């Protein structure tokens, strides 16, 4: 299994996959700036020449774009696909862990135990993504399919805060759950924070010595 993974997921293929993800994200995110917005609707609904637009997200962004293109096209299908993939991963790992160990083979429990821990960490990231983004997309669906429905403003604020908080939570999850990420973050912290702090103290100490000598 490990050998197959290294043969299939080469650095070149991994880099290509990351590049494609970034390109898709740019295209999806920039679509409103390329014309998929409410500007035409706002222009047609104004009688006077002066166009005054209230600075609100739902006023300028098309809910057709947010629901049909963004949510139904690029959020919900990948989310369901990843859910199915992780279900299969957990099933295969538990299947391997439940196999009887023979005398002629090494115990696979240690290897698959590590794989299970890693899969749980990545599944937690997926769960946090769903919890953070689904409330806002559900509210967008309500806006599109039931315009007359009342949406409490505090629910909208909570949904927006959750989407912003998702980006802040992911590094913490990686750092606490995955050893390699934790080691890398600690190395960066020591190199760029502790080093700068030490340099700052050294400069202050040197300045004080010069003042005393003068």
TrEMBL record:
Membrane-crossing ranges are: 16-36, 71-93, 118-134, 154-176, 188-207
Output the superkingdom of the source species. Answer: Eukaryota
Q: Where in the cell is it found?
A: Cell membrane
Tell me the Pfam families matching this sequence: 7tm_1
Q: Which InterPro entries match?
A: Adenosn_rcpt, GPCR_Rhodpsn, GPCR_Rhodpsn_7TM
Query: How does this protein lie in the membrane?
Result: Multi-pass membrane protein
Please give the GO cellular component terms listed in this UniProt entry: dendrite; plasma membrane; synapse
Q: Which GO terms describe its molecular function?
A: G protein-coupled adenosine receptor activity
This protein's UniProt keywords: Cell membrane, Disulfide bond, G-protein coupled receptor, Glycoprotein, Membrane, Receptor, Transducer, Transmembrane, Transmembrane helix
Q: Does the keyword Cell membrane apply?
A: yes
Residues forming the G-protein coupled receptors family 1 profile domain are 1-174
The Swiss-Prot or TrEMBL record describes its family as follows:
Belongs to the G-protein coupled receptor 1 family.
UniProt name for this protein: Adenosine A1 receptor a
Q: Which gene encodes it?
A: LOC115043656
């Amino acid at each position: 299994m490990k050998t197959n993974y290294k043969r299939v997921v080469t650095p070149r293929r991994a880099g290509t996959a990351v590049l494609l993800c970034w390109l898709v994200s740019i295209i999806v995110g920039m679509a409103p700036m390329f014309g998929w917005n409410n500007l035409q609707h706002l222009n047609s609904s104004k009688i006077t020449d002066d166009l005054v637009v209230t600075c609100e997200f739902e006023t300028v962004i098309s809910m057709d774009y947010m629901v049909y293109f963004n949510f139904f096209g690029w959020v919900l299908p990948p989310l369901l696909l990843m859910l199915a993939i992780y279900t299969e991963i957990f099933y295969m790992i538990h299947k391997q862990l439940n196999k009887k160990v023979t005398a002629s083979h090494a115990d696979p429990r240690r290897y698959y135990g590590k794989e299970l821990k890693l899969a749980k960490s990545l599944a937690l990231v997926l769960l946090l993504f769903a919890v953070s983004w689904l409330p806002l997309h559900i509210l967008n669906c309500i806006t599109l399919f039931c315009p007359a429905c009342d949406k409490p403003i505090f629910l909208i604020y909570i949904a927006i805060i959750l989407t912003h908080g998702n980006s802040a939570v992911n590094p913490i999850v990686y750092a606490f759950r995955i050893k390699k990420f934790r080691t890398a973050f600690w190395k960066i912290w020591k190199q760029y924070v502790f080093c700068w702090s030490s340099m700052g103290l050294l400069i202050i100490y040197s300045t004080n010595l010069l003042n005393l000598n003068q």
